[in-house]
Every structure is written in structure tokens, then in C-alpha cells.
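FAQ: What does a ligand-bound record look like?

Like this one, built around alpha-D-glucopyranose:
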Amino acid sequence: MVIKGKTYAQLMALLCLTSIACSLNAQHVVHATRNDKYVAPKSKAVQERLEWFRDQKLCLMMHFGLYSIWGITESWPLSTRDAFWARSDIEWVRDDAEFKRQYYALNKCFNPVRFNAKEIAKTAKRCGFKYVAFTTKHHDGFCLWDTKCTDYKTTSPECPYSTNPNADIVKNLFDACRAEGLGISAYFSKADFHHTDFWEGFGIGTATSRYPTYDIAKQPEKWARFCEFTKKQILELVADYGPIDILWLDGGWLKKERGHDMGIGQMIDAAREIQPNLISVDRMANTAYMDVRTPEQTVPDEPLDCPWESCITISESWGYHYDDSYKPVRQLIHMLIDVVAKGGNLALNVGPMPDGRLPHPALERMEKMGKWLAKNGEAIYGTRVASVASVRSWRFTKGKDGRLFGIRLWSEGERGFKHMLLNFEEKHGEVKRVVHLASGTDIPFKVTIGDYERGVMLDLPHEFSRDEFADVFVVEVEQKKGTLP
Ligand code: GLC
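The answer part, i.e. the structure of the complex:
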């Protein structure tokens, strides 16, 4: 059999490749969302705090550390077995041990003299971000606070930044964020490639992976020491750095069911004796200490029935890269709207430059997002999932007062028109009134039930001026008896 020049065998091979590609893609999404089993936290204080969390919607995430100096992938190049992807842009690595030595030695030149925490916090607030997530320690083990547990930190005399009055970057940033009324999410890596009870001899001369270099069943006391160190560090952050809203624990591969029990539950319990409503994000743990699901670089297809936060980079990388490419602002605004319509938060990651400033292309995009949010924030912050999350170019959110927000996403080059179909089906309630949020204009409408054009036809007034990225229409709906709110 031959179809358009292809034999049966060729077609079958093509089909097979396509389905492998699809399943890889699906796996990625599944890994990030559906596979996680959500167990709600028992504590009432935490449950309440999670309602606060759900209101926030937009987080400025920052990956900042030694890797920012070279503009390479964060920490992962140290893991020999991850070199194939994590070192793909580092041409000069010939000698694994020498590379590790040089990477670790970056603490001797970390000096972000233009890291202006107050400025960053002010910018974040102005641009509509409600909380800030910051890498207190990434997998490479370099600590950005004055930990007492290691000298591998910004405040150690070995690091030139230690003479700076703001050498305790975490303290400086968290204080600045609180002053602006921003929430705080402390990113902390459970894995620590610089700790010799995790990687013996700093992994130099070893083909390291993301796991400890030794069998923890054979050396339980070594593992216990590492866990104790982790606990001490977590408690330092929770005890000495003011109120923290979220403790975001990365290193999801270190989990009990895979034989790497770190006793995270006990650590969080101890932390909650200090801060009872601390939200714990033990990523991918599937335990009662994973209060929030964290899909990575992806947005779930459907609303999730638990608190969740997608972490997504504004560019292509977590840490600063000298030649990065940044997502268009339209895509960022639409992504935020899509996330919120599905009931989640967006942690948008920006990697500060080696001197500590945020890159200009990121700032430009953040400002534009802020401008859109200043006009349309009512449809975003504090909202919950509506009975329909999305229909074609429309996204829907629901205010706590019951108002429905229909958000029309405009694609680039899409022309404005006088009539517009709000694809909101009548079965969800009777539409009483439609108001354009940014201008306060009442929009005349009529309900249509044709086969093609089922929904609410908006008759846009002559003077209606469209937003560049998305317009919000507040839809006042009278609920029908028996329909879900
Ligand atoms: C990925 C990266 C890790 C980063 C994290 C943030 O897991 O490998 O380095 O910190 O995403 O979500």
C-alpha cells in the first residue's frame, strides 16, 4: 500500500514516532501536574494561609547565585551525569574535576554590587507582583544568607561581597519585600552539592549525579548528619529572617519512597512551632507537606482542585544568561490570565545579572504586565475558578462577590470589530449586564443561541478602544437554580 508516496512500513514508522513524541510531551505535563497526589495539610492555620496564597496570583521568582556570574545553567553543570544538557553551552569543560573546582571557587568573585533589594521590591510591587520567591540556596550549596552552618556563603570573608553592608542578601531582600507589603517565598534546595555528607570530597573526581555519592543505607550516620545540617539551615531561615509565607523546597527527587528520607515532615513541624502558618512546598513529595503543587515550565490543561503555582521563566533559563531570549509580553500576560482562570498562581522567574540588577528586557516586560494589571487586576487577584475556565480566546474568572470576568485574549494583529461573541453559554446563568472593566462602559449585548454563534453577542460602542493584549468584561449573571456557581 502506498499513500502519497509513502509505503505502509514508512507510515507505521511515522505513526510510531509521532506517538512516542506525543507520549513524551504528555509525560512532561503529567509529571508536572496529574501525577502529584495532593494531600491537604491538617493545620487550620495553614489551610487559611493557603486561601491567602490563592489570592496572590503573581510571584516574582529569582534564581540568583554563583552560576549567574558565568551565565550558565544553575548548579546542574556540577552534576557530571547531567552534563549532557547542563553543560551543553559551556565549551571549555574538558576536565570534570577542574571544572568543579573552578565552579566552586566562584564564591571568591561573587560581588553583586548593584543588587538593590529596595529597588527590586518596589519594581515588583509596581508591576503587580504580590510575592517574591528567592533562591536562598540552590543545589550548588552557596548560601545567600549568613548561615552558621557553612562558610560557603555571601557573608564569609572568602566572598568579596562579605564587606558589603547588604552581604546578607536574603535578609536585605526579605526586609525590603516586607516593607512593600510583598509576600515571601524562600526557595531552598534539599540537595547540596557542596556538602561533603552529600557529595563526598565535593564530588571532585567522582561521576556525580543529583543523589548522594554514597549508599545512605551503608552510611546512615553520614546521611543523618546531612539531614541535621539541612534542618538547622531551614530553622535559621524560619527563625531569624522574619515572617516567611512559603518555604519552597526544591530537590523533589530526594524522597522517602525512593529511599532518601530526609525527615522533611519533622523539619516542617519544627519550623511551624516558630511560624505556625508557614506554607510548606516539599515539591513532588505527595505528602501533607506539599501544600502547593508546582508544575514547572508548563500550565496544566485544566483547573486543578488544589492550590498550585506554575513556575515559568520569563526567558529560556532560570539563572541569568548573557544571550537569552525573552518571551513576548503578550505571551506573558496571556499565560498569567490562563493560569488564573485555571485557579493557579504564576511564579515568573527572572535571573538577576552578575552585578545584581534585573536585566532590562525583563524589566520592560514586567512594567507592561504591571500596566495591564493596574487596569484589569480586579479580574485577576483574589479570584477563583468560574464554572467555565476557557472557551477559545476567552478566559473566565470569578470574583469573591460572585461577579464573573470574561477576559478576551487578543492575538497579535487581530483586528478589532464591533460585534464580539462572548462564548459563555446560557446554561451557566442569565446574563444581566456586561461592563468593560478598564473603561467602566456598559456594553449592550444580546444572547444568541444559533448553532455557530452560541453565547452572548457584545455590541461594542463606537468609542470602545481595545486593549493591546486583553480586555476584561464584567458579566453580571443571575444564577439559574441548580447550576454550579
Ligand atoms: C528546575 C531546575 C532547577 C530550578 C527549578 C525551579 O527543576 O532544574 O534548577 O531551580 O526548576 O523550579
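Follow-up question: can I read anything off the structure? Yes, for example: Residues 63, 74, 250, 296, 311, 318 surround alpha-D-glucopyranose (CB under 6 Å).
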